[in-house]
Design the sequence.
């Protein structure tokens, strides 16, 4: 039998590839069992219903996720913020507001640029930061076109009265809205949406966008909802009405 | 020549001293004993004690990656699982970590009552 160097390399490569792919493939099926790829979590926000002086969603987020206040605009961390705008070209238009958080894009530029794969997309569409891996290079802060990310410039000690389900943060990582993944995994809604519906006007609606029977899908079918800066091609999971 | 041999013999005697000393002395190993840990709640741990003493950090890291990146809840094998049976960090994690001089960074962000 003529077994030359080329055959040896070919067989060696095949064996190595098999050994490498086997465990990965079995891990993938396990992941798919838990966080289903069939779901796409998203939100529809009606800016017509959002009142300018209401900060219920922002406050709920701060309480739920232990987001600290530094009272210094250079250091402050924002997971969700209210954006004020005045419609152009309309006589006598008053200033209006809407909440904006991480839009959990289908093609997130933040995850694309991350050099250590700390930012990743969960199978159900939630973009997450693995703070264990983050090295604080801030590429993602620059890459995000929606200014959803904040750099933690100051260590924040976990303290009494914090929500124990959400970890605190340490100096030198980047963080952002997690879409309250810890609540979604338990079948609850994100804290901002729950607060808006219980304490405010219910401008925010959260559900699975792939399921045609959900409230958010019904709002999307009205044709009034649109993504912000859809031209960028990031495919945000958060839609706005009345903008 | 005999002077050289004597020097070599002394050198090896000094080199082997720790081995000979340990083999002949009554006390073996460290004279300090492990810190005694308080018995946790519940019947038994997720793995047996000897395994946990050596490998708990690998287990925690494994469940951490699965739960953070895969969305698979860590359950009783995660950090929250430790808290449910060993409610005080000072009587559990810290007692051994300060004994061996290890300072893991878990508590910079995670909640574990002291």
Sequence:
């Amino acid at each position: 039998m003529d077994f030359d160097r080329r055959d040896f390399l070919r067989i060696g490569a095949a064996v190595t590839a098999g050994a490498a792919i086997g465990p990965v493939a079995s891990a993938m099926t396990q992941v798919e069992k838990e966080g289903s790829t069939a779901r796409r979590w998203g939100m529809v926000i009606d800016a017509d219903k959002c009142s300018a002086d209401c900060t219920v969603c922002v406050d709920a987020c701060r309480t739920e996720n232990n987001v600290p206040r530094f009272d210094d605009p250079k250091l402050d961390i924002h997971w969700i913020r209210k954006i004020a705008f005045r419609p152009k070209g309309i006589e006598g238009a008053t200033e209006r507001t809407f909440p904006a958080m991480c839009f959990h894009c289908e093609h997130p530029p933040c995850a694309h640029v991350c050099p250590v794969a700390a930012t990743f997309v969960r199978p159900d569409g939630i973009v997450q930061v693995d703070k264990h891996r983050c090295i604080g290079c801030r590429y993602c802060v620059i890459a995000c076109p929606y200014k959803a990310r904040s750099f933690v410039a100051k260590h924040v000690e976990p303290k009494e009265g914090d929500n124990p389900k959400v970890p605190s943060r340490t100096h030198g990582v980047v963080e952002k809205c997690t879409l309250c993944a810890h609540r979604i995994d338990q079948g609850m809604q994100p804290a901002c949406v729950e607060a808006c519906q219980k304490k405010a006007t219910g401008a925010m609606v959260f559900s699975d966008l792939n399921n045609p029977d959900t409230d958010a899908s019904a709002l999307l079918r009205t044709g009034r909802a649109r993504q912000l800066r859809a031209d960028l091609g990031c495919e945000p999971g958060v839609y706005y009405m009345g903008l | 020549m005999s002077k050289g041999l004597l020097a070599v013999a002394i050198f090896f005697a000094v080199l082997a001293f720790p081995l000979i000393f340990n083999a002949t002395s009554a006390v073996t190993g460290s004279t300090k004993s492990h810190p005694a840990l308080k018995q946790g709640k519940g019947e038994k741990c997720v793995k047996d004690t000897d395994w946990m003493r050596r490998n708990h950090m690998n287990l925690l890291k494994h469940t951490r990656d699965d739960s953070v990146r895969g969305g698979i809840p860590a359950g009783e094998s995660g950090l929250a699982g430790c808290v449910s049976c060993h409610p005080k960090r000072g009587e559990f994690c810290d007692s051994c970590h300060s004994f061996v001089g290890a300072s893991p960074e878990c508590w910079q962000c995670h909640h574990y009552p002291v």
